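Figure 3 (text version): structure tokens given as input.
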């Protein structure tokens, strides 16, 4: 099969800076892809790299798109190298979206979409999958004020960033947070690899103690990526030393990393970010083969990549874990942004 190929880079500004151990993030940049097959059906894909997390850079992705011809084939789509995992996801998911799921399947010539252009309606922005969602809280004290808004929107699982401020300050905020959140809430602590070995032990010991003392009506579900990627063996040891679970995130950013950690003995939780992990078909094969414990998570993509990611999550999630896509409150909601992006280019 042959496809007419076009792409557009985009920028979306966060309503407020996203602060993690990796630093502050103000603007989400990516690339929207359009594939039109020989019958005129249109598939939309998205490349949303996070280079500091393990994917290619935006510039590398743009270079790849620029060197492609205006007409591409299945062979090109499925031979994208592993060094470009966000491109693998974007092209392969776009290839799979050519069935009219995004609305009108009429491509037309550039600038001639008119009323036939795709619109991202609310049903596509929030696909009707039977999935639980986790809401992302801001780091630091801001979490104490943000959780209630998300609770009213229906979230019952929250993720809070740690490893951003001094550990003594974060433990104090944590003490307030756990006694403020309603009973039966689940809380995830995400360090983004920012803790020292001693700090990771302290966090795990604190969580174990709270659980052992029966002080909490909520559940500390896991600590996410407590140590840097290169300290895999220490995380493996910690996972066997404490009751509180550990989830790998940065360590399993791509399919190659995921397979390597599994081969080295990790049988805990894998946080999978579909937007940067690589080929969806190869991810399906790996998950079906090994039946791993997964949490699917956002890379702050647009609704295009989100729909493809949520379809994977609905198919591959196990153990009824909430997925990490509760991030809408970090952006202004624009239903017509894609049409504007395409026509104003």
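Below: residues designed for each position.
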């Amino acid at each position: 099969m042959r496809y007419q190929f076009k792409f557009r880079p985009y920028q979306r500004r966060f309503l407020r800076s996203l602060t993690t151990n990796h630093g502050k993030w103000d603007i989400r940049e990516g690339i929207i892809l359009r594939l039109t097959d020989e019958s005129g059906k249109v598939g939309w894909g998205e490349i949303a790299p996070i280079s500091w997390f393990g994917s290619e850079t935006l510039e590398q992705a743009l270079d790849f798109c620029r060197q492609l011809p205006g007409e591409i084939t299945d062979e090109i789509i499925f031979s994208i190298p592993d060094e470009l995992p966000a491109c693998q996801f974007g092209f392969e998911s776009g290839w799979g979206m050519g069935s009219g799921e995004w609305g009108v399947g009429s491509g037309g010539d550039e600038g001639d979409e008119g009323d036939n252009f795709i619109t991202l309606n609310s049903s596509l922005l929030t696909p009707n999958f039977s999935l639980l969602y986790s809401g992302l809280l801001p780091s630091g004290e801001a979490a104490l004020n943000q959780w209630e808004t998300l609770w009213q929107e229906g979230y019952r699982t929250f993720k809070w960033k740690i490893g951003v401020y001094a550990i003594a300050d974060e433990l104090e905020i944590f003490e307030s947070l756990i006694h403020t959140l309603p009973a039966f809430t689940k809380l995830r602590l995400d360090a983004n690899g920012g803790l020292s070995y001693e700090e990771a032990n302290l966090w795990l010991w604190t969580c174990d103690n709270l659980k052992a003392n029966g002080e909490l009506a909520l559940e500390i579900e896991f600590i996410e990526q407590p140590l840097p990627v290169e300290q895999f063996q220490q995380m493996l040891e910690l996972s066997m030393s404490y009751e509180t679970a550990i989830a790998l995130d940065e360590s399993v950013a791509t399919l190659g990393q995921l397979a390597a950690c599994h081969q080295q003995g990790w049988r805990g939780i894998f946080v999978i970010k579909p937007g940067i992990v690589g080929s969806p078909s190869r991810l399906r094969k790996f998950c079906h083969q090994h039946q791993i414990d997964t949490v699917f998570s956002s890379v702050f993509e647009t609704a295009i990549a989100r729909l493809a990611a949520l379809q994977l999550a609905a198919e591959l999630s196990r153990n009824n874990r909430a997925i990490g896509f509760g991030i809408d409150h970090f952006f202004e909601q624009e239903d017509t942004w894609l049409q504007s992006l395409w026509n104003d280019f």
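Residues 99-129 have pLDDT under 50 and may be disordered.
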